[in-house]
Please model this.
Amino acid sequence: MKENYKQRKNIGILGGTRFIGYHLLWALHNKGYKIHIFNRGITKLPGSIPSSIKLTYGDRNNPKDLKHFFKKEFDAVIDLSGYSLHHVKPIARKYRKYIGHYIFCSTTSVYSLPLPLNFKESKSRTKVPNTYGEDKSRIEDFLFEIHRKTKWPITILRPHGVFGKYDASLLYYVFYRLRNSIPLPFQDKNNKRMNFLYVKDLVNAFLLAMNNPKSYGEVYNVAGDDITSQKEFIELCCKVGKYKPKFYFVDNNKYPHVNAGVKWPKYDLVANNNKIKQNLKLRFTSLENSIKETYLWIKKNPKKTKAKLLLEERYILKNRPIPTWVNIYRKTANYSKIKLNLLILYFRLMFVFMLFNKLKNVIKTNK
Model:
């Protein structure tokens, strides 16, 4: 049933133009919602967006930018870009009166490792400071406290292993090798179990939670039904693409410190999804169908499947020892990457400092 334009709900998205948010904005648009997006506007869009969508550019590291976004009330705001507590506090404290329902996108990285198989939302969370998971966990605690004190409707989703069109994750690597007949390194130590999440199912989770009183004050794991090992995952890709698997078994004793092949967790990472299925009636796409749909997109975008051989693999695939110079190169490369990131951070801080001084001088001059 089509809604009258004046009755359409106003939905705000914080972030939302790269992967998950891009799928979300199109799903909301197709349902007739009015959408307003807030982000920095620096990420290249995967494709076009509807002309009816309103965009406000700003940086959450500068809370004053948010005032340009919260000029009107939203029935719901979905936060995809809250990575630190200082990103969320200004919204909850200053602008929550403009938000009917606040949905925060967290992560299963909030949990302490190692995890039991089929872990639930009540599992203890990480206390390791200055980590992605701990930062998200602190935001969760803050939101739960606000909800307890004020009854402000909040919902927290913890996605787990998301992939799909525009970000095929491990599928890039697997299908590139299958298409080019390159052996897939496989290590017996990589026998841990994992359940992935198709991006369309995550979008449906947001839609089912949105303005739904059942979701208020709740947190949900969002992860698919199918549990898989690394080998089973690759074999399923082979089945979907109609390829014959070509494994190369890596001797764990000979190459103990090399993580060759598909990147896979060191621990079992199987999130229990019963709560969101029972409470919000979310149904998940099978892993095979999720891979099928993503593979169709990969075939239309072959450039996305480029995955170069690691320098170490050139020796592993020939069963030769990895030379000392390769190990030195790897350590140097990792160190250089850290230095580069620090250098980029330094220049960004310098830019902010110079801008601040310039604004301060302008204010003095006007006085």
